[in-house]
Amino acid sequence: MKNVSLGFKQEHVIVGNIDLEYKNKALATSKFKAILNQLDANPYVKGVTLSNAVPSDYYPNYNQFYDPETETEIRTRYGRTDDDYLTTLQIPLVMGRDFDENLDKEEARSVIINRTAMKALGWYTIEGKQLKEKGNVSVGFPVVGVMEDFHYENMQNTVKPLVHFYREKNALASHRFISVRVADGHEQSVQKLLANGFENIASKRTYQQDYLADKVSAQYQLIEGMLKTVNVVALLTIFISCLGMFGLIAFMAKRRIKEIGIRKVLGAGVPRLILLLSKDYILLVMMAAIIAFPIAWYVMNAWLTSFAYSINLEWWMFGLSGLIALLITAFTVGIQAVKSAMANPTKSLKTE
């Protein structure tokens, strides 16, 4: 999930939260324009966009839209972006055009949809197409472009239909985020420029910024925490099991010390004695594996079905885990078995 292509370029993008409840909106807008001018003049800034959503942080609510010609209806997420969103995040445009501040004033109500939305509507072209919101039949939204699908949610979910509405860059109150693509190695200087600029704007909240890549990775903190916990518990379980097996084989070897001595005197070799002491434990591990494999398959398969993109469980995964368990058992038991098998049989027979 963390290495697959997401449909956009997350590297070297700084995301600042600009939903700060400004005390004087007119003055804040004026100072914000100065920040935008500084960014435009900065040679290390490759793109600037304002939006009310960024990948990993789209509003979870949905709207119902439909094609007024065919009455085909889709349930879609939506966001509001300026005309530089796609270029800054490097999201490919499949069809039509990007937003244009000269053509797409707010009253024009232009929208861009993703490829999944176009397929859901059954469209092969967007020429002359528009959407209407269910419950608001008087207003139409001309579809001016189709963007390639990108993962605006985490990879646990499939890409769902998405609609972008146009909002001009200077509409500070209509956006939540400013995203800035920066040349590699110059991120800190741009972060400082943004932080200093927003410090001079009176607001009720504190300006915060982060890398887009970190925001995307943060979506998987819960899963990573679960996996780390499982790994720790598994290692502790294996360690405790090994201690138990080691103690048990030591106890059994002590009880059978005379038997081992007699067998050795009668010609039993070290490998045969090791097999004598180890076979019961090896059989127990094999029986445990036979019981555990179906349970593990059922539980893991049920968990994986909650992910839109996941691996397939293969037989060799269970076979490998069983082999590892046998090797751990053989090593643990083998240490004590070798020690007992190598002991002097004369001393073993004298033991009371």
Please describe what this structure looks like.
By secondary structure, the chain is of the alpha+beta class. The chain folds into 2 domains: 13-218, no CATH class; 221-350, no CATH class. It contains 10 helices and 11 strands. It has helices at residues 25-41, 85-89, 115-121, 187-199, 212-218, 221-255, 257-265, 270-304, 315-341, 345-350, and strands spanning 13-17, 45-51, 63-66, 73-81, 93-96, 111-114, 130-133, 136-147, 162-166, 177-182, 208-211. A 6-stranded mixed barrel has the order 3-4-9-6-8-7. Helix 1 runs antiparallel to helix 4 (187-199) and helix 6 (221-255) runs parallel beside helix 9. The longest helix has 35 residues, at 221-255. The radius of gyration is 32 Å and the shape is elongated. The protein starts with 12 loop residues before the first strand and ends with a helix. The model has no long low-confidence stretch (mean pLDDT 88).
What is this structure's SSE topology?
Elements: E1 13-17, H1 25-41, E2 45-51, E3 63-66, E4 73-81, H2 85-89, E5 93-96, E6 111-114, H3 115-121, E7 130-133, E8 136-147, E9 162-166, E10 177-182, H4 187-199, E11 208-211, H5 212-218, H6 221-255, H7 257-265, H8 270-304, H9 315-341, H10 345-350
Parallel strand pairs: 4-9, 6-8
Antiparallel strand pairs: 1-10, 1-11, 2-10, 3-4, 3-7, 5-8, 6-9, 7-8
Helix pairs in contact: 1-4, 6-9, 8-9
